[in-house]
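Justification of computing resources. Each target in the renewal requires a structure prediction run like the one illustrated here; the chain below, 271 residues long, is used simply to show the kind of job we budget for.
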Amino acid sequence: MRFSVTTWNINSVRLRIDIVAKFIKAARPDVLCLQETKCIDDAFPLKRFKRLGYEHVALNGQKGYHGVAIVSRLPFESTDIRTFCDKLDSRHVSVSFGEKAQLSKPVVLHNFYVPAGGDIPDPALNPKFEHKLQFLDEMKACEPLHPRGDDRHILVGDLNVAPHENDVWSHKQLLKVVSHTPVETEKLLAAQAHGEWFDIARERIPMSEKVYTWWSYRAADWTVGDRGRRLDHIWVSRALKDSVSDFKITRDARSWDRPSDHVPVTAVLEV
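Resulting structure tokens:
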């Protein structure tokens, strides 16, 4: 069975629902995972998604900040929310797919929004950066999060770390910039290794190639210099590694009307 999943930090789902609809109509992923939805659950645009064919929704939202959502054409078996760092800040939601979605074996999907970490890469001076590092440590330590054996798991989201040299426009210039500092990249890669996760982008795109999913709003024209970072990720468990049939970053979305600073990232698996 073909199973497609897209992750997208939408930076306010209500503000950008029109470009979400544009993407859905063109790409038709089975599942869309959103981050930074910035609305309480009762204000989420459920009716619009249902009209688009996405009747199954798992939400973890809050007013004005953060928030994650999974909207799906396929029904869920179960949903779950985990908290990290003892904060109720709406950064995780997960669902499982099984018989209701006509899958022979279950698939668990996690959607994350890792803290951005502020501007100063020093936990002693910046509580936001301290929070980010603690969050990454807890991601590694959270055993129920990580697949084992034949578990078929997918982890997606805005992980707010560009872990490899060519995941940023300039490795040397960004070594002291939050999202690419050595301490962040080491912690994210440690969490990935602990769960034996496979980073689909870097499984399919050589490490020698530049790959980005985010471009700052601060640039008057994001295409000039192409100063991006790869902050949005799709990981799969070992049991799904050989099931990936396609991967795409929709770069053009950065130029759509009133865009997010992130673009959709999509993987297709044969499950």
